[in-house]
């Protein structure tokens, strides 16, 4: 179990992105930087500590930088500057082999649109991370079948993804992430494509599993109700900047600015 530390992360899209950092440091907004330089500020100077064993929510409007930030944790995105540490491991400094190993053993991801391989069965999808890691086939099967049972998909092992409903597909996504047995699970709006009732069931299931498994879950949502239900703490992003980090109660009673206050007022 390892804490995640993000230190001074900026991500600037566009030519010679680093040249805009001094402008941001002088107080220019992301919009002004875009107008003046053509560079899009994905993230600016993010410092964040995510303790092991938390469900930590990333919250913010569309385009605020949630996905960009979370994709730094498994290095699907490299920062323009700054570093990511998981425990003692400097993720930013890993070479290709180290990164492969890190992704196989330490961090898995659940995607909004499920990310299942359509030509593989439910069980083969759930086995995927274990196969890539070279786990012997009987153990792959044992683990996959176990986790499919845990998420309520016992009996569906030999089905294909297109034979399942959206909620069931996302259960396969969950089983695949859990079978991978990583201590960090990244979830990028995992339930936003699902009906409200199915969504509630899966939210509760993740919380129940988390209480047993004690993983570090970084959960992206743009839904404040979901963030308040799921998150031990919530990070609020606005235009690539980290506005506030706190428990749902702290955000509700002490919002750092109007942006946070408006979100909190919109929650029931
Ligand atoms: N490859 C890219 N090139 C240029 N700009 C990008 C790129 N990827 C992301 N951005 C910009 O970075 C900003 C943050 O995007 P990001 O997808 O992280 O936001 P988000 O909060 O996850 O949004 P959503 O909720 O819509 O997924 C946006 O302004 C986006 O347009």
TrEMBL record:
Q: Could you confirm whether the keyword Acetylation appears in this record?
A: no
GO terms, molecular function: ATP binding; ATP hydrolysis activity
Per UniProt, residues of the ABC transporter domain are: 28-264
What UniProt keywords are attached to this protein's entry? ATP-binding, Cell membrane, Membrane, Nucleotide-binding
Under InterPro entries, the record lists:
AAA+_ATPase, ABC_osmolyte_uptake_ATP-bind, ABC_transporter-like_ATP-bd, ABC_transporter-like_CS, P-loop_NTPase
Q: Tell me, what's a Pfam family for it? A: ABC_tran
Keyword Iron part of the UniProt annotation: no
Q: Which domain of life is it from?
A: Bacteria
Q: What is this protein called?
A: ATP-binding cassette domain-containing protein
């Amino acid at each position: 179990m390892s804490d995640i530390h993000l230190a001074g992360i900026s991500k600037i899209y566009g030519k010679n992105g680093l040249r805009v950092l001094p402008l941001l440091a002088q107080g220019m907004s992301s919009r002004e930087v875009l107008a003046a330089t053509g560079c899009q500020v994905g993230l600016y100077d993010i410092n964040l500590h995510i303790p092991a064993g938390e469900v930590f929510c990333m919250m913010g409007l569309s385009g605020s930088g949630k996905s960009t930030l979370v994709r730094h944790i498994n290095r699907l995105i490299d920062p323009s500057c700054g570093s990511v540490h998981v425990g003692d491991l400097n993720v930013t400094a890993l070479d290709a082999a180290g990164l492969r190993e890190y992704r196989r053993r330490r961090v898995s991801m659940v995607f909004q649109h499920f990310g299942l391989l359509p030509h593989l069965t439910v069980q083969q999808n759930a086995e995927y991370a274990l196969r890539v890691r070279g786990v012997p086939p009987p153990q792959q099967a044992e683990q996959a079948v176990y986790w499919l049972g845990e998420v309520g998909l016992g009996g569906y092992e030999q089905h294909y993804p297109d034979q399942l409903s959206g909620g069931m597909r996302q259960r396969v996504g969950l089983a695949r992430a859990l079978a991978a047995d990583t201590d960090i699970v990244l979830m990028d709006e995992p339930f936003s494509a699902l009906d409200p009732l199915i969504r509630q069931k899966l939210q509760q299931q993740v919380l129940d599993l988390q209480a047993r498994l004690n993983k570090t879950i970084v959960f992206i949502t743009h839904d404040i109700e979901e963030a308040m239900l799921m998150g031990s703490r919530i990070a609020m992003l606005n235009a690539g900047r980290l506005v506030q980090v706190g428990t749902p109660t702290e955000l509700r009673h002490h919002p750092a600015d109007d942006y946070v206050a408006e979100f909190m007022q919109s929650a029931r």
